[in-house]
Amino acid sequence: MKTLGILGGMSAESTVSYYININRAVNQALGGNSSAKILISSVNFEEIVQYQKKGNWQRSGEVLAEQARLLEQAGAEGILLATNTMHKIADQISNRISVPFLHILDCVADSIQAKGLSKVALLGTQFTMSDNFYRDGLLERGITPIVPDESTQKEIHRIIFDELCLGKIEESSKSFYLETIKKLQEQGAEGVILGCTEIGLLIKQSDSELPFFDTAELHSQMAVQFILGN
């Protein structure tokens, strides 16, 4: 069994789901009281949020890259960044470590292609939906993303930071997300990327006829495969 290092806390709510999902899957695979060997660096999310608001991605990358280095130094044999948005600075992290970096877009694209789809709706923070790093990453992997208009993006973003990251689940917000998905389906979306690790806390596959690609769930599965050496 390999030791996984998780860069977490962005938010704490989603990091908890990673930890639980990974350990449950490892236990199911190995039985008994087996659990995953995990090292977690849980950063102060407010510090990262302030860097995001100021557009200081370089500094946020330095903070996370240093934590990744410390995780490797502590024995992590691979690093997972438990957030979509901060994959904007994934190169800064991977350049600072000598162990594998488990990139979230790899497992998401593989899952979409396995279903024979190529055009999907993308929901996430406004950074994820509007910046090129995520959309270009999908295009490079053969996936065409469809994103909401700017005003819808702002409300999706607000719900993530003001509600989901704080553990608040509002029925009105769920309805807003599902209505947005219907509009994107009308534009040709064949599936939906839940491109923020908190969105899966709000909407579930049973809420829509389109296939959901829950990035936190898929990333957790990728982590399990790494830990078990598969």
Provide structural commentary.
The protein has helices at 12-30, 45-54, 57-73, 90-94, 104-114, 126-130, 132-140, 150-162, 171-186, 215-228, and strands at residues 3-8, 37-42, 78-81, 101-102, 119-123, 144-146, 192-194, 212-214. By secondary structure, the protein is an alpha/beta fold. The strands form two sheets. It has a four-stranded parallel β-sheet, with helices on both faces. It folds into two domains: 4-103 and 217-228, 3-Layer(aba) Sandwich (Rossmann fold), CATH 3.40.50; 118-210, Rossmann fold (3-Layer(aba) Sandwich). Helices cover 52% and strands 14% of the residues.
Distance between the termini: 10 Å
Count of discrete alpha- or pi-helical segments spanning 4 or more residues? 10
Physical arrangement of strands within the biggest beta sheet:
2-1-3-4
The overall pLDDT average reads 95
Task: Assess the beta-strand content as a share of residues.
Answer: 5-15%
Instruction: State the domain count.
Output: 2
Shape: globular
Fold topology:
Blueprint: E1 3-8, H1 12-30, E2 37-42, H2 45-54, H3 57-73, E3 78-81, H4 90-94, E4 101-102, H5 104-114, E5 119-123, H6 126-130, H7 132-140, E6 144-146, H8 150-162, H9 171-186, E7 192-194, E8 212-214, H10 215-228
Parallel strand pairs: 1-2, 1-3, 3-4, 5-6, 5-7, 7-8
Helix pairs in contact: 1-10, 5-10
Question: What is this entry, summarized?
Answer:
The chain has helices at residues 12-30, 45-54, 57-73, 90-94, 104-114, 126-130, 132-140, 150-162, 171-186, 215-228; strands at 3-8, 37-42, 78-81, 101-102, 119-123, 144-146, 192-194, 212-214.
